[in-house]
Amino acid sequence: MNIVLFGPPGAGKGTQAALLNQRLGLAHFSTGEEFRRHIEAGTPLGARIRAIVESGDLVPDDIVLDVVREALSTEHYRQGCVFDGFPRTLAQAQALDNLLAERGSAIDLVLTIDVPEEELVRRMLQRGRSDDNEAVIRERLRVYQERTAPVLDYYAQRGKLRRIAGNATIEQVHQAIRQTLSTVAANETMSNLSSS
Ligand code: AMP
Predict the structure, then answer these.
(1) Residue (of 66, 156, 59, 61) closest to 107 by Cα position
(2) In a domain, 189, yes or no
(3) Number of domains in the chain
(4) Index of the ligand 1 atom closest to the CA of residue 84
């Protein structure tokens, strides 16, 4: 099962992906965490992207896709993955479909977590990450609207998009995600039965 957790920065994608990993054993891949690791370790990649990440802008697609391609080639993600913070552009979404197709796989479901903007800002200020000051937060939200939100149409047109109400407790959002996953799994079983 390959799932994309989608939504604006601060929506709780990382928190929910970690819970799905803990409770359902689904592998979790976050491009943002991968980039932060490189920046902290001072790798050449980290040096290249540091200023971009700290300004709230997006890392260029070719760099993002190199990191994703490398991760997907490891055994860890062979059985599927929860993608957190990726894809963030249309080009990334198309490239992800191609990468998975090469492996005989596909995105099964895209869950977008909806949270009002002021709540997003409040949560990110509380989280206090190094790229979480108010000016950078506003920039990340602007970039999300401009470059990332259009990716929702791509998945909606393919019938893969489901919305999750994210203005609730961590546990409530987790249960809503579990509910959606089981509904989709049940529908797939029904359609497999009726087509066989
Ligand atoms: P996140 O942890 O998902 O909020 O990501 C932190 C930062 O890493 C973002 O603000 C971007 O600068 C960069 N980043 C993470 N994922 C991507 C991606 N898929 N495409 C471009 N930039 C990304």
Answers:
(1) 156
(2) no
(3) 1
(4) 3
